[in-house]
């Protein structure tokens, strides 16, 4: 039996560049793992079946579950190694909100690939696992890598970034709302296709990707310039999700105003001589929607600031009982094998 923690991700940056010949979008993203994890337990079964247990009402327990599909993919691709090893029971203890823009399903698939590689002695390298993961979903390769990375292509090509400061994310999501990722991209295409790069314009595509590699967010992460990290948060999908989901837009405004007042009260308590930008670096750093939403996150420098912001946001939103608020530190790991 193996137990793994499958961490969620947030998007610090998400830019949509154009269409791809395969029907997906050409993206440049900066992804960051956060220590908010589903617990995946893999138990070998004697019979060659796949059983999936999860008591979250929005998570399918049939062949459409991404973790189930990860098992089926390994069995299909490695019939000689997996024939005769029996089946597996996958138990998912869901902590990552579902349909939230936090890659919950992808992280479960990543953990299942990682765990079965160990359990079934497949001897696959991380790059081989990532190539398989990309067949299941664009975010799976990043979930296997973890940490901080630039993701290009449809999100499956991962370039790790060595430095990201130890920050904290306040994650806020209404339980009653989830956003379909295909809907968000389709709606973006309907509204913004005229701004896309032409198909197969590889020179300009490479230039747009290079701009992010050498851009302000990567520099800010590398130098640990916290207020610049906050300033450079960006997500093209906000342009379609926030107008379609006014509650999410309102939640973002609440988090921004709580962050601003938190920063102001902290800099006041630390003396009037402190400059505005120092004041900002003591408070919340920035607020943005993650992926296709509807999770909105605020970054902070300390755990105490994150907890204070979560507390104040909870007091200010109308339907508190519907709002899931969690504080998650940045982490360098995507999947953690439990002892
Ligand atoms: P992403 O950020 O990768 O776009 P997401 O966080 O927005 O993903 P998920 O939590 O992965 O969304 O869920 C999207 C849908 O996928 C769910 O509504 C559910 O039907 C389906 N799904 C399949 N497998 C899983 C899984 N293991 N965990 C959660 N959802 C799953």
Automatic annotation (TrEMBL):
<keyword id="KW-0418">Kinase</keyword>
<keyword id="KW-0414">Isoprene biosynthesis</keyword>
<feature type="domain" description="GHMP kinase N-terminal">
    <location>
        <begin position="65"/>
        <end position="147"/>
    </location>
</feature>
<feature type="binding site">
    <location>
        <begin position="97"/>
        <end position="107"/>
    </location>
    <ligand>
        <name>ATP</name>
    </ligand>
</feature>
<dbReference type="InterPro" id="IPR006204">
    <property type="entry name" value="GHMP_kinase_N_dom"/>
</dbReference>
<dbReference type="InterPro" id="IPR020568">
    <property type="entry name" value="Ribosomal_Su5_D2-typ_SF"/>
</dbReference>
<dbReference type="GO" id="GO:0019288">
    <property type="term" value="P:isopentenyl diphosphate biosynthetic process, methylerythritol 4-phosphate pathway"/>
</dbReference>
<protein>
    <recommendedName>
        <fullName>4-diphosphocytidyl-2-C-methyl-D-erythritol kinase</fullName>
        <ecNumber>2.7.1.148</ecNumber>
    </recommendedName>
</protein>
<dbReference type="InterPro" id="IPR014721">
    <property type="entry name" value="Ribsml_uS5_D2-typ_fold_subgr"/>
</dbReference>
<feature type="region of interest" description="Disordered">
    <location>
        <begin position="267"/>
        <end position="287"/>
    </location>
</feature>
<feature type="active site">
    <location>
        <position position="9"/>
    </location>
</feature>
<dbReference type="InterPro" id="IPR036554">
    <property type="entry name" value="GHMP_kinase_C_sf"/>
</dbReference>
<keyword id="KW-0808">Transferase</keyword>
<dbReference type="GO" id="GO:0050515">
    <property type="term" value="F:4-(cytidine 5'-diphospho)-2-C-methyl-D-erythritol kinase activity"/>
</dbReference>
<keyword id="KW-0547">Nucleotide-binding</keyword>
<feature type="active site">
    <location>
        <position position="139"/>
    </location>
</feature>
<comment type="pathway">
    <text>Isoprenoid biosynthesis; isopentenyl diphosphate biosynthesis via DXP pathway; isopentenyl diphosphate from 1-deoxy-D-xylulose 5-phosphate: step 3/6.</text>
</comment>
<feature type="domain" description="GHMP kinase C-terminal">
    <location>
        <begin position="282"/>
        <end position="316"/>
    </location>
</feature>
<comment type="function">
    <text>Catalyzes the phosphorylation of the position 2 hydroxy group of 4-diphosphocytidyl-2C-methyl-D-erythritol.</text>
</comment>
<dbReference type="GO" id="GO:0005524">
    <property type="term" value="F:ATP binding"/>
</dbReference>
<dbReference type="GO" id="GO:0016114">
    <property type="term" value="P:terpenoid biosynthetic process"/>
</dbReference>
<keyword id="KW-0067">ATP-binding</keyword>
<feature type="compositionally biased region" description="Low complexity">
    <location>
        <begin position="267"/>
        <end position="284"/>
    </location>
</feature>
<dbReference type="Pfam" id="PF00288">
    <property type="entry name" value="GHMP_kinases_N"/>
</dbReference>
<comment type="similarity">
    <text>Belongs to the GHMP kinase family. IspE subfamily.</text>
</comment>
<dbReference type="InterPro" id="IPR013750">
    <property type="entry name" value="GHMP_kinase_C_dom"/>
</dbReference>
<dbReference type="InterPro" id="IPR004424">
    <property type="entry name" value="IspE"/>
</dbReference>
<dbReference type="Pfam" id="PF08544">
    <property type="entry name" value="GHMP_kinases_C"/>
</dbReference>
């Amino acid at each position: 039996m193996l137990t793994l923690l499958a961490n969620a991700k947030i998007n610090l940056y998400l830019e949509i560049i154009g269409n791809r010949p395969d029907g997906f979008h050409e993206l440049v993203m900066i992804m960051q793992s956060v220590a908010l994890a589903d617990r995946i337990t893999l138990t070998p079964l004697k019979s060659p079946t796949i059983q999936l247990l999860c008591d979250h009402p929005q998570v399918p327990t049939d062949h459409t579950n991404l973790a189930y599909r990860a098992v089926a993919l390994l069995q299909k691709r490695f019939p000689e190694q997996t024939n005769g090893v029996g089946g597996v029971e996958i138990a998912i203890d869901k902590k990552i909100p579902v349909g939230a823009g936090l890659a919950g399903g992808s992280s479960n698939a990543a953990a299942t690939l990682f765990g079965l590689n160990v359990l079934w002695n497949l001897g696959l390298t991380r790059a081989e696992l990532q190539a398989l993961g990309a067949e299941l979903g664009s975010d799976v390769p990043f979930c296997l890598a973890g940490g901080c990375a630039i993701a290009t292509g449809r999100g499956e090509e991962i370039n790790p970034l060595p430095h990201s400061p130890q920050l904290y994310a306040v994650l806020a999501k209404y339980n009653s709302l989830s956003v379909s990722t295909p809907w968000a991209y389709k709606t973006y295409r309907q509204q913004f296709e005229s701004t896309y790069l032409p198909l197969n314009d590889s020179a300009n595509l490479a230039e747009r990707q290079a701009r992010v590699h050498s851009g302000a967010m990567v520099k800010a992460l590398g130098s640990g310039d916290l207020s610049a990290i906050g300033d450079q948060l960006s997500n093209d999908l906000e342009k379609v999700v926030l107008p379609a989901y006014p509650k999410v837009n309102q939640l973002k405004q609440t988090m921004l105003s709580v962050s601003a007042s938190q920063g102001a009260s902290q800099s006041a308590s630390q003396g009037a001589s402190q400059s505005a930008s120092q004041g900002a670096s003591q408070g919340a750093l920035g607020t943005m929607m993650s992926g296709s939403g509807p999770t909105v996150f605020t970054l902070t420098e300390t755990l105490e600031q994150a907890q204070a912001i979560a507390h104040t946001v909870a007091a200010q939103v109308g339907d508190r009982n519907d709002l899931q608020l969690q504080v998650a530190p940045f982490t360098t790991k995507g999947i953690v094998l439990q002892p």
